[in-house]
Design brief:
- Helix content is 37%, strand content 13%.
- The protein is of the alpha/beta class and 500 residues long.
- The protein has a domain of 173 residues.
- The strands form two sheets. The chain has a ten-stranded mixed β-sheet, with helices on both faces. Strands 8-9 form a two-stranded antiparallel ribbon.
- The chain starts with 39 loop residues before the first strand and ends with a strand.
- GO terms for molecular function: hydrolase activity.
- Pfam families: Abhydrolase_1, Abhydrolase_4.
């Protein structure tokens, strides 16, 4: 679950969110208290429709809120709420571990349920803390009232589509200014790192452990830089290069996703009797090319939805971050539906319909709003649309399927506020364990080396021959899982980098 939205940085299948439970008020509460932060713990379920809270309650977790400054330069000013869950250790306790599932903008409240199982014998040794980061989920959520998922969005095959997407992205930025403007100056990874340290203090911990995926690796690196000496065991899986993180972070992943698409095409060709997409790699790729060609013309009518050259590449991009057979089969089903739609209207499966609803309607507005606000709040981007058009044109030949997506313009080019702080420069020797796959299509492998150069106390576990974003506990690789679990139990990093 590295990315909750297909629009999110790291793959995974988007589904339409269930009707959300009643959330805490989004208004800023006033407080002048200067006492130590305190968490009020209680039941997790908010109401009868809160299935997430009910599942946490059944597992024996507890949930709480912590009031933190909206603006850390005014610690006694307005406060916002940070929502969290805690699944207490049942074995010999090592400490508290904060979890982050990536995104950016991914809720983390239910992560302890999944991680306790994934961590096996280490899972019972920690108090597992699932956080909804600021402005996400139950943590004073923001909602820009977006008409569709928004980022990233392909800039299309023609100048006409590009100009339309420019107008759409400008509109998204204006909506965020109108509907969440009071919060936008305070949406940043640095402030989220400060929130985590407030959680540490409120938990009464001298040090916390931290395990995160994708964007969470950047958040973890920022925390290590801002709060040295306050972590015990740190696992960063699917690492991002801190120098590249921001709204343009996908500019380096086009070639990796082109390669992942070709690999999937070879897999699908070997199963042509099932998917009927082509008997050779070239034949399957021709089917994909037809989908994009028709999407750029009359479009693809799938149920009540229509895919064009702005949205079709997003659908093709999202599921490529997982090369396991089950994920590839799901992807093949989506492609087959889109191919049939090139000949006339079709109906989607329930799963594909859920993805399209999340992508093309306001259903995922709250999730997408937080994601866009975080990437725009962290790092400024070029504001001239011509910069993006030239970049796409220069790479269409080498990245024919994904240049218009990986290099697209975003709402950040029109963002109504500038970042209040410069991006964090990561340079320290804090200990950490980095986990990376050599074929990761989202956080490409050079990111791992770049992060390790900045975290000189870190060790790296590299998994060979895997095109998967997020490995530990998810990919089923016993070598990686065993090494991570040994570190979590012992606290000792490997003496040298490891390969699985």
């Amino acid at each position: 679950m590295k990315l909750l939205l297909v629009a999110a940085l790291l793959g995974g299948t988007l589904t339409t969110p269930a009707e959300p439970p009643a959330s805490p008020p989004t208004s800023i509460s006033k407080s002048i208290s200067t006492s130590a932060p305190r968490i009020e713990w209680g039941h997790c379920r908010l109401n009868a429709g809160d299935t997430e809270g009910a599942e946490l309650d059944r597992a024996g977790a507890e949930c709480g809120e912590l009031k933190v400054p909206l603006d850390y330069s005014r610690p006694d000013g307005p406060k916002i709420s940070i929502a969290m869950s805690r699944l207490k250790a049942t074995g010999h306790r090592i400490g508290a571990m904060v979890l982050n599932d990536g995104g950016p903008g991914g809720p983390g409240l239910s992560m302890p349920l999944r991680l306790r199982t994934m961590m096996r014998e280490a899972g019972t040794r920690y108090d597992l803390i699932g956080l909804d980061p600021r402005f996400v989920g139950r943590s004073t959520p923001i909602d820009c009232k977006l008409p569709f998922a928004g980022w990233p969005w392909a800039d299309g095959a023609s100048r006409a589509t590009f100009d339309r997407v420019v107008r759409q992205q400008a509109d998204l930025a204006a909506r965020c200014g109108a509907n969440a403007g009071q919060y936008l100056p305070y949406v940043s990874t640095r402030n989220t790192a400060r929130d985590i340290d407030q959680v540490r203090i409120a938990l009464g911990e001298e040090k916390i452990s931290y395990l995160a995926y994708s964007y969470g690796t950047y958040l973890g690196a920022v925390y290590l830089q801002m709060f040295p000496g306050r972590t015990d065991r740190v696992v960063l899986d699917g690492p991002l290069d801190p120098e590249l993180y921001g709204a343009q972070l996908l500019r380096t992943v086009g070639p990796a996703n082109e390669a992942a698409l070709r690999d999937w095409a070879t897999w699908a060709a070997a199963r042509d009797r099932t998917y009927q997409l082509g008997t050779t790699t070239a034949g399957v790729m021709a089917s994909v090319d037809r989908i994009l060609r028709v999407a750029a013309g009359p479009g693809l009518a799938i149920g009540k939805y229509r895919l064009d050259d702005g949205s079709a590449p997003v659908v093709l991009f999202g599921p490529l971050a997982d090369d396991r057979d089950a994920a590839r089969a799901t992807y093949a089903g989506f492609v087959r539906t889109m191919l049939r739609a090139t000949y006339g209207p079709v109906e989607p499966s329930a799963e594909f319909g859920g993805l399209l609803a999340g992508l093309l309607t306001p259903a995922a507005s709250q999730l997408s709003s937080a994601q866009i606000a975080i990437v725009c709040g962290d790092r400024a981007v070029p504001r001239d649309p011509a910069t993006y058009w030239r970049d796409i044109q220069a790479h269409r030949r080498t990245e024919p399927h994904f240049a218009s997506l990986a290099r697209s313009i975003s709402a950040c080019a029109f963002w109504p506020v500038r970042p209040r702080e410069a991006p964090t420069r990561i340079a320290n020797a804090e200990p950490a364990l980095i986990v990376a796959a050599d074929g990761d299509p989202r956080a490409v492998y050079p990111n791992a080396a770049a992060l390790q150069r900045k975290l000189t106390g870190a060790r790296l576990i590299m998994l060979r021959d895997a095109r998967k974003h997020g490995i530990f506990g998810e990919y089923g690789n016993g070598c990686v899982d065993g090494k991570v679990i040994r570190y979590l139990l012992s606290g000792r990093l490997p003496a040298v980098d490891q390969t699985c």
